[in-house]
């Protein structure tokens, strides 16, 4: 006589135990990753490191504000009357001379639009001394503006100043996000290098200091 035997529950229990262990390991790993992420964020956004970063982002923000204001300020109206002209087309050099005999180099287009007895002023921004071009006042009082042949950062206005002001978002966007980390490390490594380039390689420290000295 045959006896029916029930299937052994042992394999099922083993599978359940194995799944439980895997779930525990996954939870522990997730917990560990979150703890690491929190520790990294805390180390970057608190204490002496955060104070140092806040100090580090102030110069680029100030530079961006100066560039923003600079473009809006009026330029010089100190026109010089032209008494003589000279050109050297072979080497692309064009000159005019004022009442004092001072030589002023101008672009070819400006040279072609100016005559003796006209007046000219070279247009530079007041703070950063960026060259815009030259303004010509004809003897008939007609006024022309000739854009400089070399593009300057001001033709990217307002993108250029706003770019330097981006680190200010760190004061308002202090949370665990891609934006925060990108701005954070850009402020530590990229912005100081760019600011040093403009201040020292492009020699912007001199016109900035002159502007504030003359202001007071």
Structure notes:
It is a single chain. The chain is an alpha+beta fold and 216 residues long. It has a domain at 80-152: OB fold (Dihydrolipoamide Acetyltransferase, E2P). The chain has 6 helices and 7 strands. Strand 5 (119-124) and strand 6 form a beta hairpin. It is elongated. The model has no long low-confidence stretch (mean pLDDT 84).
Count of beta strands:
7
CATH topology of the domain at 80-152: OB fold (Dihydrolipoamide Acetyltransferase, E2P)
Kindly provide the radius of gyration, computed on alpha-carbon positions and rounded to a whole number of angstroms. Answer: 33 Å
The strand line-up of the biggest sheet is 1-5-6-7
CATH architecture of the domain at 80-152: Beta Barrel
Average pLDDT score: 84
Q: What percent of residues adopt helix (DSSP H or I)?
A: 40-55%
Sheet having the most strands: 4 strands, antiparallel
**Which parts are unreliable, with pLDDT below 50 for 5 consecutive residues or more?**
none
Number of helices: 6
Distance between the termini: 116 Å
Which structural class is indicated by helix and strand composition? alpha+beta
CATH class of the domain at 80-152: Mainly Beta
Listing every helix as H and every strand as E from the N terminus to the C terminus, the arrangement reads HHEEEEHEEEHHH
């Amino acid at each position: 006589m045959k006896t029916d035997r029930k299937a052994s529950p042992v394999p099922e229990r083993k599978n359940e135990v194995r799944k439980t262990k895997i779930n525990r390991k996954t939870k522990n790993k997730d917990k560990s990753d979150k703890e690491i992420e929190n520790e990294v964020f805390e180390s970057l956004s608190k204490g002496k490191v955060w104070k140092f970063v806040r100090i580090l982002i102030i110069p680029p923000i100030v530079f961006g504000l100066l560039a923003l204001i600079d473009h809006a300020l009026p330029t010089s109206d100190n026109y010089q009357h032209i008494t003589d002209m000279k050109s050297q087309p072979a080497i692309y050099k064009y000159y005019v001379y004022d009442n004092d005999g001072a030589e002023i180099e101008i672009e070819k287009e400006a040279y072609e639009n100016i005559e003796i007895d006209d007046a000219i002023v070279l247009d530079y921004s007041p703070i950063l001394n960026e060259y815009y071009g030259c303004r010509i006042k004809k003897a008939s009082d007609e006024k022309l503006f000739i854009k400089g042949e070399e593009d300057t950062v001001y033709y990217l206005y307002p993108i250029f100043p706003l770019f330097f002001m981006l680190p200010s978002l760190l004061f308002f966007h202090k949370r665990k996000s891609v934006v925060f980390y990108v701005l954070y490390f850009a402020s530590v490594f990229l912005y100081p290098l760019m600011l040093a380039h403009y201040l020292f390689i492009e020699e912007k420290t001199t016109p900035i200091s002159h502007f504030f000295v003359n202001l007071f």
